[in-house]
Amino acid sequence: xxxxxxxxxxxxxxxxxxxxxxxxxxxxxxxxxxxxxxxxxxxxxxxxxxxxxxxxxxxxxxxxxxxxxxxxxxxxxxxxxxxxxxxxxxxxxxxxxxxxxxxxxxxxxxxxxxxxxxxxxxxxxxxxxxxxxxxxxxxxxxxxxxxxxxxxxxxxxxxxxxxxxxxxxxxxxxxxxxxxxxxxxxxxxxxxxxxxxxxxxxxxxxxxxxxxxxxxxxxxxxxxxxxxxxxxxxxxxxxxxxxxxxxxxxxxxxxxxxxxxxxxxxxxxxxxxxxxxxxxxxxxxxxxxxxxxxxxxxxxxxxxxxxxxxxxxxxxxxxxxxxxxxxxxxxxxxxxxxxxxxxxxxxxxxxxxxxxxxxxxxxxxxxxxxxxxxxxxxxxxxxxxxxxxxxxxxxxxxxxxxxxxxxxxxxxxxxxxxxxxxxxxxxxxxxxxxxxxxxxxxxxxxxxxxxxxxxxxxxxxxxxxxxxxxxxxxxxxxxxxxxxxxxxxxxxxxxxxxxxxxxxxxxxxxxxxxxxxxxxxxxxxxxxxxxxxxxxxxxxxxxxxxxxxxxxxxxxxxxxxxxxxxxxxxxxxxxxxxxxxxxxxxxxxxxxxxxxxxxxxxxxxxxxxxxxxxxxxxxxxxxxxxxxxxxxxxxxxxxxxxxxxxxxxxxxxxxxxxxxxxxxxxxxxxxxxx
Length: 674
Ligand code: PRX
Fold this sequence. Notes:
The protein is built from 21 helices and 30 strands. The chain is of the alpha/beta class. Helix 5 (92-103) packs across helix 7 (158-170).
């Protein structure tokens, strides 16, 4: 963590006056979820002091239970046992589909905006139920039952939503794999989750291009012998797609045989709903496990209270179901409230920079939720496209995935929201399941750049990382942790509870450790600084430096490497790799250096995905190391950022002479002067 910067952030916050939700917000939708800040404070207090009462009532208000729960909250972070709503039984698919198919069957549930502008499809709740049941029928006939893992490797199409809900209907645990992942990452996730069935499509469409979904999956499955069945949705219908006999079947052919209704399987509240892999600072990606009752309640409550989503609303979350944002705010949150969700297949830049705005105008979207990286790009592209569209239906603008700079926040508020929207910077994580810190619509005044105040049940604390002590009061900074469990918190890492304990519960015993640095200003508002571990956030994509390092190391020419993240104007952070070669002469001339860099970048693209490819690869003679042989990434990060003056203490370094070499290499190859 850059402590100086953090000081500055908290200090600057002194001058920021909190802004109330604009009155136009409620002129557009007069029903109020919350009346004012006192409402928030009263409910927050109750959620912390009497969680059983508070969340017991919320669970009854937001969800339909097949059997009522016996205990609201059970276990403790100290023991590493977290349970909510024990004894309760429910089905997530029933809660997100059947309830509304019964009460408002013709109401739109899913709006599909395809990559090609002309292609749009709507599914009512009744139609969604039909499609989900048909797919669940196929899965059931293949022997998929409660607790089985099903991998979903699908782009942002309604089929991804249908696939998740069909699994949930049967009690099978879905594990979505981001469609931008390549072979190595797909294989690793399918293998780790022990998935026997994969749901996918032939090809995807994105930004005017075809993506080779099935081809990549085929390669990944070469090393996943346990996968027995693959269901392939014909998205483009390309007849050349390679199908493996006896394993691969076409979705549209198979669903024909199955009825439009099959009953949902009643699940225990603590039964897993899904696994989602995420990068940590060490080891392979962690399969974060979320459970049915608590997760669904967190999704529904935050969607209602942070965004103020009502059943008549249309929410456009420009995320991806391959990440947690897509799970919670494209699928489970809006559907659990009976609202409509826009599923967008494409990119903000295709066919032009007006695509998001066109989708909002066309569908009269009321809520828009996106990562700051997209906002930075759109701001840069100018206002011509924005002014062409009527965005007046919008009520809430959300931001997620990385810190939002105050000037981007202001731009979002002014140019997209016309100062009439609730602007919510939402801080949370794959592990938290739903928002941890975010302003509640109509109740919590906002400050540009601040995530503001914790959500109900989130007992946020700031810990001094050196002493491990809780920082009481305001105007403090340190690392962010949570004192007690909240309903949508992850329960474990799939088949490795020790990793869960080590990553989240052991660093500060009795607390959940977020991995982020943060400050709390004089109003008690939280300002998130970013990761304090080796996780890099590129365009809102969470990447582990060690994962990229091992992919580079697999190249025979590389003897050692270190990957770091440095600030980047457009992508938030950028991946930089410092690589030491077995034969240093390989890179002697410009052409072979160029070819080598291309090859290394390609290795990462092919193995993890294009978004993980290093922006720059610096060839070095040696890497800075401690006496015990640990690579000192901090030094590489500082030098690559042009801050060699601030590298601090080098007394533990075994090879201090490397710093000068590194400074030279960075200047020559990366153009950054120190
Ligand atoms: O570092 C924080 C950053 O994203 C991390 C979580 O990444 P992931 O699990 O992929 O989930 C992203 C979508 C929730 C966090 O540890 N992060 C997320 N939201 C914010 C943020 N950093 C600052 N401000 C945010 N609003």
